[in-house]
Amino acid sequence: MTPSPLHQILDYANRADPYPIYEELRRTPVHHEGDGPYVVSTYHEILGLLHDPRVSSDSRTVARTPHDPLAEPDQQESALPPSFLRLDPPEHDRLRRMTNRPFGPPHSPHRVDGMRGELRDIVTGLIDGIGDPDRFDLVDQFSYPFPVTVICRLLGIPREDEARFHTWADAIAASLDPDPDADPAERGKGAHDARMQLGMYLAGLIEERRRNPGDDMLSALATAQGEDGSMTTMELLSTAALLLIAGHETTVNLVTNGMLTLLRNPGSLQRLRADHRLAVPIVEELLRFEPPVQLVPQRVTLADVEVRGVTIPKGSSLWLVLASGNRDPRRFENPDRFDPDRRDIQHLGLGSGIHSCFGAPLARLEAQFALSELARRLENPRLLEDPPPYRRNAVLRGPRHLRIACDGIRA
């Protein structure tokens, strides 16, 4: 008996190449089996639902849909109030507005752009530290430490504390990527301890920044007194945890999937090496072709919603398969071809609607710097295994290791 598309998506055996499953899934744009979730896989329908106020992201609503295998509340938020990612308006809007004031336009238009020099220095230092060019792991030596360091600098974590921050981030990230060979109780305790230590550390740092604010985002959040009032300490902790986990996990996958795709498409890699300006369209096409978040499982309908002639009843769990929508031939020509020259590229790789990726400007810039410098400095890079071993997580899909060899590393 052929497994259902739902089980095939979750089956680790399909992690290296889920796209044939998505192609089959698109034949039934709204797929539903038994008492499981409704799975939507076509571009226009996903886009409509991402903008539909009848679809809830509130974690307290999602937790009441027991038949969704991916609907458990986020572990990293279990001791904290929900972040704005897991709230509906008006609570969502208030917290997102408050977080955006020190992060982006119109109030802080230079926050991300002003990090260009720092991003360049971090990337340079990590590439310099690769060591033996005959065999190295891009994930462990570059993609994993890069975004954590960036978030530390963004929040204003003291340099001497960055190593502790990395350790906590690693433990929390491991809890998002289940390992069948590991003791789940031990892993759960490690992640819980890391969250508690991180929370206590950040709580102390927030109080210190309220007394002595600096020019960092945590200081701005801790001292803000705008039209929406100020964040409580618990709201601040929840927001900082969101920036750490969401910002870290997606960027790891974007950079790693990006380098894997470029190594499989050497013509594009050569073009990027010759012209770093191509990093912008390359990253946009990567967000379509190999998005770091494959699907959004935590949505619930607040009313009956009709999609392509199918009525999804009120209270139903929804999966929106972004990676499938990004390869919908009704929306993109030759969708299975990686094409950095693609003109029409309104992808779903960073979501859409009120929950579109908050850190998108920073994630784009990180990936552009990372991939352009890797292309420039690695001489004749090549994969040592293809496909590489993947993380087990079906939502945050990316290689767990990407082992590469090259002839040398340019200065």
Present the secondary structure layout:
Layout: H1 5-10, H2 19-25, E1 30-32, E2 38-40, H3 43-50, E3 55-56, H4 59-62, H5 91-100, H6 116-128, E4 136-137, H7 138-143, H8 145-155, H9 162-175, H10 184-211, H11 217-223, H12 233-264, H13 266-274, H14 279-289, E5 296-301, E6 305-307, E7 310-312, E8 317-320, H15 322-325, H16 360-377, E9 378-379, E10 382-383, E11 403-405, E12 408-409
Parallel strand pairs: 2-8
Antiparallel strand pairs: 1-2, 3-5, 4-11, 5-8, 6-7, 9-12, 10-11
What this model shows, in words?
The protein has a single domain, classed as Cytochrome p450, CATH 1.10.630. 46% of the residues lie in helices and 9% in strands. It has helices at residues 5-10, 19-25, 43-50, 59-62, 91-100, 116-128, 138-143, 145-155, 162-175, 184-211, 217-223, 233-264, 266-274, 279-289, 322-325, 360-377, and strands spanning 30-32, 38-40, 55-56, 136-137, 296-301, 305-307, 310-312, 317-320, 378-379, 382-383, 403-405, 408-409. Strands 1-2-8-5-3 form a five-stranded mixed beta sheet. A three-stranded antiparallel beta sheet has the order 4-11-10. The chain is of the alpha+beta class. A hairpin with a 2-residue loop joins strand 6 (305-307) and strand 7.
Q: Profile the largest sheet.
A: 5 strands, mixed
Helix content: 40-55%
Number of helices: 16
How many beta-strand segments? 12
What's the gist of this structure?
By secondary structure, the chain is of the alpha+beta class. It has helices at 5-10, 19-25, 43-50, 59-62, 91-100, 116-128, 138-143, 145-155, 162-175, 184-211, 217-223, 233-264, 266-274, 279-289, 322-325, 360-377, and strands at 30-32, 38-40, 55-56, 136-137, 296-301, 305-307, 310-312, 317-320, 378-379, 382-383, 403-405, 408-409. The longest helix is centred in the middle third of the chain and has 32 residues, at 233-264.
